[in-house]
Amino acid sequence: MKQIIRKVTIAVSLFWVCQANGDPRGTGDLGVVIERETGSIQIVNTTKPASLSHIQGLGDLSHASIVFSRDQRYAYVFGRDGGLTKIDLLQDKIDKRIIQAGNSIGGAISQDGKVIAVSNYTPGGVKLFDAVTLEQLAEIPAIYGEDNKLSKVVGLVDAPGQRFVCSLFEGNEIWLIDAKNPRQPGVKKFKDVGKQPYDALLTPDGHFYGAGLFGEKGLALLDLWQPENGVEHILEDYGKDDEQMPVYKMPHLEGWTVAGDWLLVPAVGLHEVLVIDTREWELVKRIPVAGQPVFVTSRPDGRQVWVNFAFPDNQTVEVIDLKDFNVLKTLQPGKAVLHMEFSPRGESVWLAVRDEDRVMVYDTETFAETARLPAQKPSGIFFTDRANRIGW
After folding, report:
1. What pTM did the predictor assign?
2. In CATH, what number is assigned to the domain containing residue 288?
3. How far apart are CA 374 and CA 228, in angstroms?
4. What is the helix (H) or strand (E) element at residue 274, kind and residue range?
5. Which residue pairs, CB below 8 angstroms and at least 24 apart, start in 324-332?
6. Do 176 and 257 fall into the same domain?
7. In terms of CB atoms within 10 Å, which of 115, 179, 270, 360 comes out highest?
8. Are residues 147 and 217 in the same domain?
9. Could you read off the pLDDT of 154-209 as tens digits, one per residue?
10. Is 143 a domain residue?
11. pLDDT in tens, 334-372
């Protein structure tokens, strides 16, 4: 009798799961599309491609970003209103949601997948949370200077060794946070790294953390294998004699724009993508592009780099071939291309076209459009393969 009851219970459970979610799904080909103006997201299948579900009630997503649990089941959404929302990608629902600050800019997940770190504008600082319960574990105020002011925190990434790295925009500092004991994290502060670090990237091997500088030329570079050597200022001379244009949208460094020995970054206030030799950290080429670049994103194999632009050129996307550093293709997907995300192996790329209320998918070899999905003012697109990458 007990065996019969057990079989019936299992059958009912499986029936409930299938009824709740439709066909069984794997997490490896899932993704999330942010719908910024409605505070909602779509869960998508990246292989078909198709929209699977629509979830509302996520607050202000005007500058939202996402990280994933290591099993790829949960997405953690960082909202501009300070919201931290944990989404169950298999049950198509909000698992937990808290308001942890007044204004949040992004976050990261620790190497072991147990700690969520959030970078905040208001109040300035970093908070650490339990990835399962969203219980707050620690708060690290971004205090700087003799007057103990609070700085906005930007460029927060996870790093090997159960660490996080971030930058202080007004504080002109980079912080290395040791979260091995997340209730009592250690902080190593690097001061006077350059004026107004605005965003950052981590090289794919977790070796270098580079912060772009908005208030002066160059980048601030921290060697995480040898942090005792301090922060190096590189590319101080690029474009110093060029006429500066108004910056319509802050460029973004986050993402793997490292391809082989090359680092490609958007130039602030210029119509250029900069190519940096990561062996010597020297500028080797300035690639003219159609406008002020926002995202400069490398295809997973490193052969192509796709670039989108700030207004008034945000209807354009250019593709750079790293064989010769020339623009290979120019596309016109529609008004306000805000974000780009490659499929895990790079055969396709998804573009969020905000003002056309759609997501478009392109074949990265033929540049043919292969699919389009309706979406309400889409912005960020995030696929679950990010769960297995450092610094994403």
Report:
1. 0.91
2. 2.40.10.480
3. 50
4. strand 272-277
5. 325/275, 325/285, 325/287, 326/287, 327/287, 327/289, 328/304, 329/367, 330/290, 331/362, 331/367
6. no
7. 179
8. yes
9. 999 999 999 999 999 999 999 999 999 999 999 999 999 999 999 999 999 999 99
10. yes
11. 999 999 999 999 999 999 999 999 999 999 999 999 999
